[in-house]
Amino acid sequence: MQPNHLLAAMRDGASINEAGLHQVMFFFPNILIMFFFPNILSVICYSHTIDIVGKHFEFSVLDTFSRCWNTLFSLSPASRLLWRTRTGTAMQLHSKTRWWSKWEVLNQVMEFFGNVEPFLRENDNLSPVCRASLLEIFDDPATARDLDIELAAMIDAGKHFVQATYYLEGDGPLVFTCYEHLSALAHAIAIESYSNTEAKACQHAGRNMALYNQLVAQAKACINPGFRFYQQKFSVQFHNINCPCI
After folding, report:
1. Of 143, 151, 60, whose CA–CA distance to 106 is shortest?
2. Which positions, given as ranges, span the membrane (predicted)?
3. How far apart are CA 188 and CA 184, in angstroms?
């Protein structure tokens, strides 16, 4: 293979691999320049990169709720039992190593959202600090409304990214369908289809169109930083090179 034929190198997104790459570049700079420069493009695993999109969403209320909710269930088996008794479903636990774990937990929260506030109010034996922080959100009508809107926005914005993340981590000749999935993500962003968000905004605004538009705009402002990160990565930094993590 000629040096200028090697266009890109893809690696796992784990920090230890990035450190290893820098170490190789430190000890063998001339070799790298000889073989890779100037065409080599270092690309982090697409699944890892897409997962990072969620970390760029900016929620004022939902992030606080998520931290307290996850702590409540991760530290207390009793809380998990009480929730299962009430809903008939085990609450998912957040995992720091699982892609889009935060989204998966919050997706379940939205599914059982009508049970969340009663669960917190009826069980005063829950973790006092977490319970107090969560109830503080529901005690203020405006903050509770913002939580509802932000939760819907998170689910609407994340679902396409979650599907693409797990598809692109799979085995097989994914290179032939990778571009299609990335294009589908770009299309999902472009058409701005937020069914849950719009339904929640309509529910809270009633016939007040000004408030409805305000709530939808508020939700989009929370998720747009994540969309911009994705577009910057895949439309600018990665150029037209599309290959999955294999």
Report:
1. 151
2. 26-46
3. 6
How far apart are alpha carbons 71 and 130 in whole angstroms? Answer: 7
pLDDT, tens only, 76-85: 999 999 999 9
Cα–Cα distances in angstroms (integers) from residue 222 to residues 33, 86, 90, 190, 206, in the given order: 42, 32, 29, 16, 22
The beta-carbon contacts of 185-190 under 8 Å, at least 24 apart in sequence, are 185/50, 185/160, 185/161, 185/230, 186/231, 186/234, 186/235, 188/160, 189/227, 189/230, 189/231
Please give the Cα distance from 243 to 10 (Å, whole number).
Answer: 8
What is the distance between the alpha carbons of residues 196 and 142, in angstroms, rounded to a whole number?
19
Model confidence, pTM = 0.81
Please state whether beta strands 8-11 and 41-44 pair in parallel, antiparallel, or not at all (unpaired).
Answer: parallel
Secondary structure of residue 102 in the 3-state scheme: helix
- Say if residue 150 is exposed, middle or buried (CB neighbours under 10 Å; 0-12, 13-18, 19+): buried
The answer to whether residues 84 and 91 touch, using CB atoms and an 8 Å cutoff, is yes
